[in-house]
From TrEMBL:
It comes from Hermetia illucens (Black soldier fly). The lineage of its organism: Eukaryota, Metazoa, Ecdysozoa, Arthropoda, Hexapoda. Its main location: membrane. It is a multi-pass membrane protein. Residues 64-302 form the ABC transporter domain. This is ABC transporter domain-containing protein.
Amino acid sequence: MASIKDNSSKRSSLITHIVKTKENNATNNDAKFKVAEVNETSMEMDRLTGSGLKYLPKWPAVNIEFQDLSLSVPDLASGKKTILKGVTGRFQSNQLSAILGPSGCGKTTLLNTLAGYKSDAATGQVNINNRPRDMRLFRKMSRYIMQNEVLSPHLTVVEAMGVAADLKLGNDLKKEQKDEVIDEIIDTLRLNKARNTRGLQLSGGEKKRLSIGLELVNNPPVIFLDEPTTGLDDAASVQCIALLQRIAHSGRTIICSIHTPSARIFEMFDHVYVMAEGQCVYQGSSTHIVPYIQEFGLSCPLTYNPADFIIEVVSHEYGTEYNEKMVAAVDNGKSFSWCPHSHHEDTEDSKGSSLLAHSHHEGHTIEQFEEEIDIKQLKSKSSWIQQFAVLLRRMLLEMWRDTNYIKLKFCMTITLGLIVGGLYEGVGNDATKALFNFGFAFGITIAYLYKPMMPVLLQFPTEVRLLKREYFNQWYKLGPYYCAMICAKMPFQIFLALIYLTMIYLMSSQPLELSRIVMLYAVSFLIAMNSDSFGVLIASRLSIVNAMFIGPVLACPMILLSCYGIGFGRGVYIPTYVRVLMSLSYIRHGLEGILAALYGNNRADTFCPDDEVFCMFRKAEFLLNLLGFNNLNYAVSVSALLGYYVFFTVAAYYMIKSRLSFSTCNYAAVQYVSQFVKTHLNFASYKY
Ligand SMILES: Nc1ncnc2c1ncn2[C@@H]1O[C@H](COP(=O)(O)OP(=O)(O)OP(=O)(O)O)[C@@H](O)[C@H]1O
């Protein structure tokens, strides 16, 4: 609660910072930045830090500077493709900044690199408040809102905000205080009418505003947005940018990449950074862009949108020579001549000087900060167990509300139960149908291979998108998410398994002995859990299409190995390597476990009908010997299934962790493995 006590001092320092910035701006005689606006900003602060937001931690200004940023990626044709070519620039607190440029010029790449989203391969320097960026800390203070945001589909706006508040604010605030924060944000985002609308039913603009709102919950000092207006109509785009402007002017650093803003949206940006072919062709105020272009002998028609005009110029519509000239004029971002508050530095010696030199030698260029970011404030406010509880509740609610999914699974279970039960009716205790009963046991393993695995292959790649956003934005750790995911599936899976197994067990007339029933249910459930985890392991690094292909393909050899040697009889030699491979198939252990449950423990002889002269398979032992299952051991099968479950679960956890990893580890071996996995096993689309 220290944060609440410190609020007033932090707020006043934030306003002091705003005043400073505005005063600097005032020296430029820029109408947009008059000192008089400071009062307005203060009022904006009051409004945004009004009733609910006053509980949230306040941060000092965070300014981002970058120098000589370059990034290359492997290219099939040329071997290497350079996306960012030594760009320099800065984005300041209390400003709404835009990265602008034609498609493919490197806007998203620059944004990703600055946010640390995909920055491993980048070279150059990124400074936060004049100090080298500490990626771990920076990730805690910044939020990244991606282009195609994924929201919880079955939670309403207010429920989704509640989950975000519980995860991000933990016990720091009481429930009523959190509700006030949520109401305030919903109000600011004008989402009141959609308060009780589910994510799935929100309009594009509402989704976008909600994804911004979710990240505002703990008042982050820095927000990156990739194309926030994509998919919105003009009115919704203006609303969205106006909202971002208000948030920025309340003391935050907001940076958006934007494609083709309308004139109205363009003038809302305090600072624009225009790129072409991976280089900076302009950085400064949006209002200075027309005089800037005029310096190159091009005049923007009065009725023309300056943003469209500069994009046309850098897209070579007025000749190919301008890009080079523009990059030289702003020294690829090193010159701040066109930035509002550095107009007075528009001298020859300031042009082309390095950004770091600027900040160190000319204290007025980058504000000096009275306050450092309090690292303690950046720590997660919710404990492991709280995160687990909130995520489990959310997952169960999501599952419960997805009524179509529940109905479908329920109907499928009953239908499958009726079909299998009907096909194997009465085979359980009939000595003439013992081989059919083996088919029944095999059928259980196949059903529990595919039934749990296929939905995971289909759903998990989509779930990863939500996980990726929330994990990157520090909502929770992977451990509680993963455990909640495992636990959330269990109740429904157990319920369906009980229905299915009871139906087929009774219909097929298996022995009505409690111990056998419990053993069969337990081993069937273990097979299902293994298949679920195996599915997660496959889907952890694959797209839906690849997962749906690889999953069944990998299942085939496991099925074949599970029944290899059937009919060879007792004592027939099976090569050691095949035995090893057979033991690698958890389906084999599952089948052995089911047969042990049905035929183990000295099962009494099965019934031989009177009209049969001789029943060969009356004795369970004879049947098992003939099928090659003479050494059944239920405990060994269950232990093997548990072992495989632990292995798949842990392996899937680390695969997901490596997929979500945004930083490089210090250990060379781990780096190598991680790089190998990212390069060779990265079949999923990372554009999300
Ligand atoms: N991993 C990658 N491998 C190869 N090329 C890449 C990779 N990532 C980006 N690129 C290429 O780098 C260039 C810049 O991509 P980026 O997504 O940053 O562009 P952008 O300016 O955001 O474009 P848009 O406005 O269309 O989204 C593009 O030509 C893109 O094809």
